[in-house]
Write a structure and sequence with these properties.
Blueprint: H1 6-38, H2 43-71, H3 73-92, H4 97-125, H5 128-159, H6 164-167, H7 169-183, H8 197-220, H9 225-245, H10 261-290, H11 296-302, H12 304-324, H13 326-344, H14 353-380, H15 387-420, H16 428-431, H17 433-440, H18 444-479, H19 490-498
Helix pairs in contact: 1-2, 1-4, 1-5, 1-7, 2-3, 2-4, 2-8, 2-15, 3-4, 3-7, 4-5, 4-15, 5-11, 5-12, 5-14, 8-9, 8-15, 10-11, 10-14, 10-15, 10-18, 12-13, 12-14, 13-14, 13-18, 15-18, 17-18
């Protein structure tokens, strides 16, 4: 007979699965130079190693939530973990670029099911008082993958072959599979909901087109006709999806969720936080490498203050939200992120790591005060029968927001960097700061010019991220209710109580 502690064991299983996804987000970047050499991968191949994963993820998030509600979240979680582990092994032993791209696409399929359904299970397992703490653990596990990816990836590449960076997922998935089987109870949503094939087609095509257009814009620039056309096409398809959902008898996405201020505000503000932070985490590793001269391991190590700040912020937010509500805590968190990002915009090529560590710690605290309470506000508005679909919507918004953040802030950084480069530098400098520094061959004057231009570009991008965070702080005060109460979940909890959970 399971004890009440079983729900925390179940949380550990879900946290392991999100840690594996978080690791996969960043660990690949460390291996790209090795993959280019060993698999004779072109620049296009290297882009598709990432894009294949992201596009499948975007396409499957919404239907995954609905399928979990209908057929059982535990069943789909177990299947998704098996798919994710198998695809990780397939990535490790790929012999060609085509095989690796295909394996990465399957990996994205597993992640697309894990992300919304693990959140949906949390909504059922934990009540209003415990859910905030559980969400903090769950989100921190995912965030830990950001610095741990380069750390583990760098160490593995120094000691083993490149496939080891993918095999690191396998033991995590194996432990999570056993834990899910033992401690995660089966739960369902609306089992009578019919499948919505047109909704699936429109949402998948729209999210894929929008995400791909954003990715291309990050590489080609926002004035590129193909990128703009793809984004506009994706937006049109998503508009058609919304139109169809209003008329379908059994819609894929329950758009009535957006009638709730708590769900809408929480989803929008979680997306804003993802936009600002993923853009920040896009710039920092490049800064540590091109300006600080760090390898992947050293860069990952220097990102750890962000995670420390996130842990501190989440712990603080949990206590404050119980007293004053999520609205003020989220607004304060985004306000702190704004201040930290503005402070970061004063970073120069000669700035010491102590200054950088201080402002990225503050940014992490702000994220910890923003993301868990925002997710808590959104998830608290969901009843158990709608938690799968609601989580699918929430994760899709965060995924697109993160992709937009990387593309927009990456474009701002690159544009400002190139505009600040003096004439007469090696042509590789226009490709990236790291390539330019490598081509400088120890010429201190050239290296300093490239590093100064890069920090200028990063500072401009941080100011843009600060403006987004400031807008989010203002939105929090208007979009969220003063107090957020969880949706009634007693019927589902009685079922879990009968199972000893």
């Amino acid at each position: 007979m399971a004890t009440p502690k079983s729900r925390w064991y179940a949380l550990a299983a879900l946290a392991l699965s999100t840690l594996a996804i978080g690791l996969d987000t960043t660990i690949l970047s460390v291996a790209l130079p090795t993959l280019s050499r060993d698999l004779h991968a072109t620049t296009g191949d290297l882009q598709w190693f990432t894009n294949a994963y992201l596009l499948v993820l975007a396409a499957v998030l919404l239907p995954a939530g609905m399928l979990g509600d209908r057929f059982g979240r535990k069943k789909l979680l177990t299947g998704a973990l098996f798919v994710f582990g198998t695809a990780s092994a397939a990535c490790a032993w790929s012999a060609t670029t085509g095989q690796l791209i295909a394996a990465r696409a399957v990996l994205g399929l597993g992640a697309a099911v894990l992300m919304p359904l693990s959140g949906a299970v949390l909504t059922v397992l934990f009540d209003d008082k415990e859910r905030s703490k559980a969400l903090s653990v769950w989100l921190t596990a995912s965030a830990l993958g950001i610095p741990l990816g380069p750390l583990l990836g760098g160490w593995l590449l120094d000691h083993f072959w490149w496939g080891s960076v993918f095999l690191i997922n396998v033991p995590l998935v194996a432990i999570a599979l056993v834990a899910v089987a033992l401690w995660v109870p089966e739960s369902h949503g609306d089992r009578a909901r019919r499948f919505d094939p047109l909704g699936v087609l429109l949402s998948a095509a729209g999210l894929v087109a929008l995400t791909y257009g954003i990715i291309e814009a990050g590489d080609r620039g926002w004035g590129d006709a193909r990128s703009l056309g793809t984004m506009i096409g994706g937006a049109v398809l998503l508009a058609a999806f919304v139109w169809w959902q209003r008329r379908a008898r059994s819609p894929l996405a329950d758009l009535d969720l957006f009638r709730s201020r708590a769900f809408t505000g929480g989803a929008v503000l979680a997306t804003v936080a993802s936009f600002a932070m993923l853009g920040l985490l896009f710039a920092l590793p490049q800064y540590f490498s091109a300006v600080g001269g760090q390898d992947a391991f050293g860069s990952g190590l220097r990102l750890l203050p962000v995670i420390g700040g996130l842990l501190l912020g989440a712990r603080t937010a949990e206590k404050l939200a119980a007293r004053v509500g999520n609205r003020l805590v989220i607004a304060a968190g985004l306000g702190l992120m704004t201040v930290a990002l503005v402070a970061g915009s004063f970073t120069g090529a000669s700035s010491g790591y102590g200054f950088v560590a201080a402002w990225i710690t503050a940014a992490g605290i702000g994220l910890g005060c923003t993301l868990p309470p925002s997710m808590d506000a959104a998830l608290g508005a969901l009843s158990p029968e709608r938690s799968g679909v609601g989580n699918g919507l929430l994760q899709a918004m965060r995924q697109v927001g993160g992709a937009i953040g990387v593309a927009v802030l990456g474009t701002v950084l690159n544009s400002a960097y190139r505009a600040d480069l003096p004439a007469g530098l090696p042509p590789q400098a226009r490709e990236s700061a790291a390539s330019g520094v490598a081509a400088a061959q120890g010429d201190a004057g050239v290296e300093h010019a490239i590093q100064a231009a890069f920090t200028h570009g990063m500072d401009v991008s941080l100011l843009v991220a600060a403006a987004i965070a400031a807008a989010g702080a203002i939105l929090a005060l208007f979009m969220l209710p003063g107090r957020v109460h969880a949706a009634p979940v007693e019927e589902e909890r009685l079922v879990l109580a009968e199972s000893g959970l």
